[in-house]
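Proteins fold reproducibly. Next comes an illustrative record:
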Amino acid sequence: MKLGVNYLFIFTETPVLFWKKMSSYSDSELKKMELKNKIKKAVSLHVTLKAKERQEKRVAQKLHLHMPDINERKLITAVSTNNTERLQEMLSGNHNPNSKDNHNRSALHIAVSRGYTECVCLLLQNGADVNSQDILGNTPLHLAACTSNLQIITHLLNAGADINSLDMHGRNPRQLAESKLHILRHSWKSRTIEMTNLREQLQQVYRG
């Protein structure tokens, strides 16, 4: 029987007929069929992934999103996992300190939002743009103001962060910090926050 047999037809037949047909193949023919099927699956998967990649690029272009290359993704991963050793190695190897994800968030945005102070320092020391804006217009200082991380805020300000930079809603970092203070006050009045936690966060805001 030829290898060009319709495999779909085989699997729609009764078990007895299917067994007879499969028994008629030699071991070498079966191996060739198996290899052929594996190649088909691999090609199909490759085509599917390529189609998905093209679709993502079209969406990104339509929404004006950034499409990171492989080196950018590696650096973003190092920052996201707080892998300072790997980050230092990549920055020393001339990787872009301003690498961004597909939401235009820079490595510095991610380090700030997660409170990774050492990553923040490494990025700033290697030329990261302290006033880079993500798709929502947030700078790293906007994010730092929301987290009230005074150490990171200090590093950003020393690096030249613009306190008057506006996000897409027209808010600057100071206004975001004040909004957080309002939320903390409301949480205290409604007794939805532990007093020790409230005291610590208020101290951070007032010291800023």
Notes: The domain at 70-206 is CATH 1.25.40.20 (Serine Threonine Protein Phosphatase 5, Tetratricopeptide repeat). Confidence is low (pLDDT under 50) at residues 1-13. The two ends are 81 Å apart (CA to CA).
